[in-house]
Batch of 2 targets.
Target 1
Amino acid sequence: MAELQGLGAELSAAEQAGVEIIAVAPDPNERSQKMAEGLRLAYRFVADPDLAVTRRYGLVHAGGGPDGRDVPRPATAVLDRDGIVRWFSASTNYQVRPDPADVRRAVHALSSPR
Amino acid sequence: MTSARLAALSVVVAVGAVAAYIALLRVPVVRNHPEAYVVAFAAATTLAALALRRSRRWYAWLALGLSTLLLVAGTWTNFVVARIPATPTALRVGERPPDFTLPDASGRPVSLADYRGRKPVILIFYRGYW
């Protein structure tokens, strides 16, 4: 969750209003949603309990969870208005998460002229 | 520096690295450089070895034992346990990823395609409530 909290601190209210943040996780997401509301973050938490979507996206860390369960590989992507990936980062070490400052820069780059 | 001081410094560096890493986990630069604690444990082990060379007292052995244990455990954790094999992913820069529909916290379906032409999206996959 640390990366989500960090992102909430990094993005201003206006930035959060201009972008949809969709957070995908396998666990029941009422807790996550409550936490986001507590932090005043504009997240949509969606549940992927059997990892079907996560697997389709190639983001499963096989046997990486407690008791050798499959868990998601931490990853963040920034998609532009047309749904094209403009920035992507996936971790190869579960202690490491995308830096919220990098995510913010990627979001800023969407609105600057190319 | 005396053996006792070197041994004490070794313990401070080793235990301090653990405390600092846990306390500053929310700071991206700390979280994203876990190898820093391995470097700190290596420094602590070196200090303990120097302490032991000055005198073979119990505290020098203690410092060496503690720092070596942390160095082995830290290296194992960071370079073996925490490794995630890089797999080919459907998220590629310049491409549109496959659509999906998943329920949100209130059970309403959320589709990635809903935002196309409307809003940029930050899509985050995370491991769960921790």
Note: The two ends of chain A are 33 Å apart (CA to CA).
Target 2
Amino acid sequence: MSATISFKLNGERVRLEADENRKLLWVLRTELGQTGTKYGCGRGSCGACVVLVNDSPIRSCMAGVGSVRGKEVVTIEGLANGGELHPLQKAFIEHDALQCGFCTPGMILSAHGLLRSTRKPSREDITKRMDRNLCRCGAHTRIIDAIESAAAELRNGKSTT
Amino acid sequence: MNSSDEQSLGVQQSRREFLKSSGGGIAIFVTFGGQLGLLEHAEAQGRSGVPADFNAFLRIAEDGRVTCLTGKIEMGQGPITSLPQMMAEELGVAFEMVDIVMGDTDLCPWDRGTWGSLTTRAFGPLLRAAAAEARGVLLDLASQELRVPVSRLEVNAGVVSDRKNGRKRITYGELAKGEPIERHLKLKPELKDVSQFQIMGQPKLRRDSLEKVTGKAKYAADIRLPGMLYAKILRPPAHGAKLKKADTSGARKVDGVRLVEDGDLIAVLHELPDVAQDALGRINAKFDLPPPMLTDQNIHEHLLRVAPKGEVTAKAGNVDKARKLADRMIETRYFDGYVAHAPIETHAALAHIERGKCTVWASTQNPFGARDKIARAIGFSPDKVRVITPFVGGGFGGKTSNMQAVEAARLAQTVGRPVQVMRTREEEFFYDTFRPAAVVNIRSGIDGSGRITFWDYEVLFAGQRGAEHFYEIPNHRTTVRPQGWSGGPHPFATGAWRAPANNTNTFARESQISAMAAAAGADAIEFRLKHLGDPRMIRVLKAAAQRFGWTPAATPSKRGFGVACGIDAGTYVAAIAEVAVDARSGEVEVKRVLSAQEMGIVVNPQGATIQMEGCVTMGLGYALSEEVHFRGGQILDTNFHRYEIPRFSGVPKIETLLVEANDIPPQGGGEPAIVVMGAVIANAIHDATGARLKRMPMTPARVKAAIEEA
């Protein structure tokens, strides 16, 4: 059923008419122009579509747009604070933790969720929490390095690359 | 005026517009003659749509920035960084001053496609030569401006100066000011020697990371145009299925939907992609399905039955005689299944036709091939089709057929609006051109002193690449049935998959070599070294053994150590792995992989290392878990919950080693390190358990069965 849905997207209030069962992924990518959120599988298996809803990573290909009513949604486009990149974004650059880059937004936002709950994750913690995010190019080791280093920067205010 | 003249005029017009965008500037077109780059150039000859006027193109703008134009594309493998490195080096400018335009068929010189690890080894020399030649042009211009003979000039970071009088100097940007200058050159290649390198050989981080970590990087499905529609296309449930009838009335009832029924192409279009997808589901279609004869269970029997006689591609001595004299013969049949490319980005394209020109943004490894195919499909001449390649989200050999780009163009032509076609993951698995299932038969023998006396090798359907061994064996024969990896008696399309043919061939060959080492009671590395004559392979293998800390032992040693060697795209690879096997479950834990590689001159050691890491990781997938299941033409692995690609939890400690060889020109880097991954794991499993795995992927069930048999 079409309904008016409003929520916060990357800090800005948005309001749109949409069937609330439509998946958040398509609304973000189409009406809202947030193409950094990627389609990879459409069934929650790959993690390319992960966005933050009230700071928690969710798979936007599985979530109805109605479920974010009144909440705060952050996509990869909204992660940098003003011009300042998030430590995870910086660490991904410094570690070359990507190749084709298609899984990268989902990787970064999933890692964001991890770092919010675990200040000092071990490599095992990272592996476990990131295991449902798929990367086909094989950047895994560098992604773990980048997350470790971003965690350290978030703790200390400086990077330990 | 003939059509090729018209075409080059049309394309030149686009390029002129591109040149004008920066005011003055210097454009340099280079035509290659002589011996250089024949691999690429020869293929260009005789093909329609190949510009005869030049093969490379670069521009120097008034601000001194240099633009490198290439038909190659960026899909993660890194030419966006390494090509500007080469251009900066030969042109004499700072690396940061070089921009790159990739995969735009109107702006960039013709290119055969980005595959085969050819960008660095075949296109690289052309690009470097063009840049070196352009440097000569700039020196001539500077000589006139400064009134100093060229022989007295030197270039440093885009500044030309008089060696005798440092105050006499002019920048490339200053030379480019004023009227646009266009130069057409015939090339006499003169490349810098490695000892002069300042930029090549330096490790450089990727140049596209900032866009990729902020979501700004555009892929084909991210391009938006006013009025665009998203198309979802009716697909058969199985390959070989014939459409009997389609009732589209349900779909037509969806608000805002547009139906296209154009022969074999039935599509639902809508302004919202997910609404189009839902509407597609409302088409009631009936298909005739052929009875499913072939499955992943019986495919190898079928392949053995129908394989052509093939041809002998390498031989020496007398294999049949030697076989009778061998002390010990080992005869093994190896099997490989179908493997999917499974890039995280599915195929996508957006097509827009305006004033008789069709522009298509496509995820493709082959923009010029796409252009020609689209032109044929919609009845345009190739110069009226422009393919633009944004970032490609992984290719691995799978984004070459351009079906989605053709569909988008046909639909855009029919509805008169821009149309996007983006495959669902299910369509991606269905229409993938899989790495073919294959069989390898090897008979080989050793004498009483543990020397290999004969080698009789026959590969069915994998293809020729990597089939020929590189050991010193007096009597040997290699037969390929047939040479290629496309076509054949498969129930669906097959094609090139990262290092085509070589993964299967190296799995079989290196498994057999280790099996013979075990039969001879020899250490697997010492056994190889005893049979190697090629100094490049000997160096790489020794370097790998040293870095790993290998100590000789007869296999199975219970340590779980395996080794494998391979050659691909001119690059030599040796890998050593350590595994632990749970004999009860058959689970294999890969603990450590060391990959050593000699690839001639290394342009970007950082990029080369990352490609090796990617090869190791991706290779673990085909070695351990990846296999396409099917029943007739129906693909049963429809998504990532069924088709298991490597995950974080399966990635071992990966070490890489680049073996220096500056006397050898740059060789391929995107594929070689993957070819050894099947055998290195199979050999490590054998060393751990005594069980010889003969079929990939080495799933827990197969490992368990092999252990029980051993």
Note: The first strand of chain A starts at residue 2 and ends at 9.
